[in-house]
Amino acid sequence: MKMEDIIINWAYVILLFVLGFITYRRKSLDLFGSAVMIVMGIVIIFSAGANWLLLIVLFLVMSLLATKFSKKYKMSLGEFEGRRTSKNVISNGVVACFMAAFGGYYLPFVGGFIGAIATATADTLASEIGVLDPHPRLITTLQKVDPGTNGAISVLGTVSGIAGATIIGIAAYLLNIMHDPIFVIVVSVISGTIGCFIDSILGALFENQGWLTNEHVNLLATIFGAIVGILLI
After folding, report:
1. Which of 61-70, 88-97, 104-113, 179-188 has the highest mean pLDDT?
2. How confident is the model over 195-215, as pLDDT tens digits?
3. How many other CB atoms sit within 10 Å of the CB of residue 83?
4. Helix (H) or strand (E) holding 45
5. In the chain, at which end, N or C, are there fewer CB atoms within 10 A of the end residue's CB?
6. What's the pLDDT at 6?
7. What is the rounded CA–CA span in Å between residue 36 and residue 53?
8. Cβ contacts of residue 229 below 8 Å, gap of 6+?
9. Exposed, middle or buried, 148 (CB in 10 Å: 0-12/13-18/19+)?
10. Alpha carbon distance 104, 119 (integer Å)
11. Which candidate, 1, 87, 93, places its Cα nearest to that of 52?
């Protein structure tokens, strides 16, 4: 690695600490969650590159904006999540971090990285924006349920999730993570959408029964999304 590349990477590390400080001060992440985000970011910077990190930052920004969107209405429903913890960071980011760390050694892991990020993005947007749809249905039975019910799907949520996965695919091309724009968007949309629906199925079948937590469901969904991304490469 050239000296100028090392300097650039350390500049991104500094920016990562600044981002961690901002997310903590704005009460988006707790202290340990911000610390975990920084550590995972450093791993990605020095194993895959800053462009891969920027894709995760994009997911973080979109998820925070989606969470704050219609905050008062979500609070009236009791569905405003507020400050996230290290469990949220790990469940949504550890698979992508692993894929990034080894993506340079095994090409399909690049697809796994995009699939994991696309799933996390699609699921977050589907949940945070989909809760505003007054007519959700349970994915396993199509029975009408209350907004925010684990495993609930809606037209608004599904469209928002697919849009989020599409943005991740476009960004992955612009950040030069993959070079074929159509292919990377297809990989992102398919893996993100499948991963998002897997999240809903797991929520309906296991989270509602108390057998899995939300963090377990998110982790398993990103694993499925990563597997789909790997298989598509």
Report:
1. 179-188
2. 999 999 999 999 989 999 999
3. 14
4. helix 31-47
5. N
6. 65
7. 14
8. 108, 111, 112, 113, 114, 115, 116, 118, 187, 188, 191
9. middle
10. 21
11. 93
The residue with tokens 């610390």 is 35
Question: Which percentage of the chain shows pLDDT scores above 70?
Answer: 91
- Phi, psi (rounded to 5 degrees) for 148: 95, -5
Q: What is the pTM of this model?
A: 0.91
Q: SS3 helix, strand, coil % of the chain, rounded to 5?
A: 75, 5, 25
Two tokens at 31? 């202290």
Which helix (H) or strand (E) segment holds residue 152: the answer is strand 152-153
Q: How far is Cα 216 from Cα 173, in angstroms, rounded to an integer?
A: 30
Q: 50, 9 in Cβ contact below 8 A?
A: yes
